[in-house]
What does this fold into?
Amino acid sequence: MNFSRQQFNTVFQQPATKVLLFLILTALIWIGYFTWRPPILLLGVNHVEHLDPQTQTVALTFDDAPHPLTTPMLLAALKRANVNATFFCVGDNLQMYPQLAYDMIHQGNKLGNHSQNHHNLTTLQTAQQGPEMEQCFALIQKLDGQTHLFRPPGGGLDWRALRYMYNHNITLAWWSNNVGDWAPMPAWKIVNHFKNSLRPGDIILLHDAGTSTPQAISSIVREARERGFKFVLMPES
It folds into this structure.
């Protein structure tokens, strides 16, 4: 049986047909997503993305450390506010600025793994993903830091990286509050974003880059404490 163009268009303009096509397309998208980032692996990997909201605690975390300009500014701001944070470090930066890592640890802060070269894991070959994580872990251990926490650059994960993390007992260090300071913005805007999004149990994502974030620390800490929150280091599990 041959369909004319008019008959063909009439069929595909029917509401039921549109709904069916939408459901098929949605199913294909989800199948593709779960193939790329399978939920069983994702759920099986040790992960921390939120603290217990009943404890009224929050955790400050900074990605991309250490940096010769901004890390000393952040450390000074944290010391003035009498608060500690978890710094997710890039291995290359640790090799260039080990004294800054010692300063972070000595001040009571914690080091986490943010990869060796800050490559998005999904862009790497399978054989490159493990070393991208392990080299940074080795450097942190050499600097007297102990952690299983790994935060992937750009949040980039796929089934290969998740399988490696699962097999090697690596904890996925996620976040629940992305303040957005990765984009250039003044300190007051960072503070406003923080105020509007802060919730009990938040793991707060900030960055060791630019001068605005260090300037915002005192206001961020004051706002959280006025709401009755206590700052803690990011837990290992």
